[in-house]
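Students often ask what a holo structure prediction actually looks like on paper. The answer is less mysterious than it sounds. You provide the chain, you provide the ligand, and the output is a string of discrete structure tokens encoding the 3D arrangement of the protein together with adenosine-5'-triphosphate.
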Amino acid sequence: MEFLEIKSKKKEIMAHLKEERTLVLIKPDGIQRSLVGEILGRYERAGLKLVGVKMLVPTVDHIEKHYTLDPNWRRVTGEKTIAGYQKRGLTPPSMDPLEITARILDGLKRYLSAGPVIAMVWQGAHAVQIIRKLTGSTEPLSSDVGTIRGDYVLDSYQMADIDRRAVRNLIHASGSVEEAQMEIPHWFDEKELIKYNIVQEKIFYDVNLDGILD
Ligand code: ATP
Ligand code: MG
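The corresponding structure tokens follow.
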């Protein structure tokens, strides 16, 4: 009895993990650079499943809402940016995090509404963390080699600051499961997300691997 209980608990946890979802946007520069196939391929080859996809030109209102779904985003982004200036030995244009973020948000609105964007939902175990890892850190100058941003972009905060624009880093990817849960409904209706199986899931998630031999 106890064993069965443990087994069903384990099943619950596994079902939960393999159903983790994350939101990815290929920003206008990714489409202009013809990197759509490359980006999708990297997520696919890691074993993640594409469950929703669409192409659109987002409105500035939609972009602002996307970035401010988390009520702390304005403050945190402003603080991170001020710390970044200080680390480089530079004086920030303002010591008010909200003022700094207002500028960044203006840049992001111009950036993301400049052309079509591809919005996607990817599903699989640890989808959020795996996608962030493959995508690389926010500033391409310091993204690791082998990540999408490290391999395909050369932008930096310094260059973005000089030109008063957002850092161009090809992709947005949800930063946490909670962020994904807020972002996915902002871009997709539940009916646009398809529930289906792909055969490789047997290899990743089947406990006994007992369906291979005839
Ligand atoms: P992601 O883009 O995957 O969300 P992140 O969560 O680390 O990465 P945020 O701090 O949420 O990044 O910033 C969102 C986007 O805003 C970045 O991808 C970048 O394009 C832009 N951005 C952030 N900080 C700055 C900055 N200091 N200067 C210019 N652009 C910035
Ligand atoms: Mg973010």
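The chain has one domain: 17-204.
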